[in-house]
Amino acid sequence: MILGEFTDRAGFERLLPRTFGSQEWLGSENDDLLFDNGSRELVGVGLHLPAASAPPHVGVRLPAEPRPVRSGLRAQEVRDFSLAQTTVLYCDPVATELTCLRGLAVLDDSLDARLGIAPGLALVVQVGEVVGWSLTDPVQYLTTGYAVADPAPTAPSTRLRLAECLALIARPLVDAVMDKEPDAWHRLRTTERALREQREDLNRAAALHRLVTRLIEDYENW
C-alpha cells in the first residue's frame, strides 16, 4: 500500500532527495516511512502485506480501546531508520477491516495507541514501537500501481472478492495453490470467474482480477 503526494514512480523519486527515514532500506524487506527534511512531517508511506494469514479460528480483532486517533506523524529528529514488515494479516469475510501485525502475540498485551495517519489507516503502537497497522474498509482504496483509487461507491461483491484474494495470496492457501491442491485451485478459479463476470464496481474488480490471473499464470505450469 502506497500513500503520498505523488501519482507515479517519477514523482516518488523526486520526493526522495528532500526526505529522510527509510531510504536506505527501500526495496528491502522493510516498510517505508519518509519524512520531510524541513518540517519533519510524514510525507510518504509504503506498507507491505504480510505473507501469512492468521488462522480463521483465531478471529483477530484489535481491542476497542484505545480508539484510533486522527493525527499526523512528526519525527523527533532527522535520522534514518528501518521499520520491520508485519508478518500476519487478518481480513474478515466481508473486508470490513484489514489488520496486519508483527505477530499474533501483539494481541496478548494492551496497546499504547492507534495513530490515524490517513483516512482509515492507523498505526498500531505498543510499548513505544509500531507493531502493526489497520485499514478500515480497505476495498475503497483498491487500485493498481500509483493510480488514484476510484471515488465511486464500492460494491458488496467486491468486498467478498477482496477477502478471498487476500487469503489466496498468503500462506497457507497460496502454498496449496503452488502445490496444485484441487480445493485451492477450485477456490482460485471460482474467484477469477466471479471477478471476470462482475458487472458492478468494475475498476476495483479489474484490479483484483489482474492479481488473480497473475497467480494462475505464475503457478499453472509451476
Structural account:
- The mean pLDDT is 92.
- The radius of gyration is 18 Å and the shape is globular.
- The chain has helices at residues 9-15, 156-168, 173-178, 182-197, 202-219, and strands spanning 2-4, 19-21, 30-36, 42-46, 52-53, 69-70, 83-84, 88-91, 97-101, 113-118, 121-126, 129-136.
- The chain folds into 2 domains: 2-136, no CATH class; 148-219, no CATH class.
- Helix content is 27%, strand content 24%.
- The longest helix has 18 residues, at 202-219.
- Strand 3 and strand 4 form a beta hairpin.
- It has a 7-stranded mixed beta sheet with strand order 5-8-9-12-11-10-6. Strands 1, 2, 3, 4 and 7 form a 5-stranded antiparallel beta sheet that branches.
- With 222 residues, it is of the alpha+beta class.
- It starts with a strand and ends with a helix.
- 31% of the residues are buried.
- What is the rounded distance between the termini? 28 Å
Report mean pLDDT, rounded to a whole number: 92
Q: Please give the order of strands in the largest beta sheet.
A: 5-8-9-12-11-10-6
Largest sheet: 7 strands, mixed
Order of helices and strands: EHEEEEEEEEEEEHHHH
Q: How helical, in percent, are the residues?
A: 25-40%
Question: Could you say how many structural domains there are in total?
Answer: 2
Outline type: globular
Radius of gyration: 18 Å
Report the count of strand segments.
12
Instruction: Tell me the number of helical segments per DSSP (H or I, 4 or more residues long).
Output: 5
Overall structural class, as computed from helix and strand content, comes to: alpha+beta
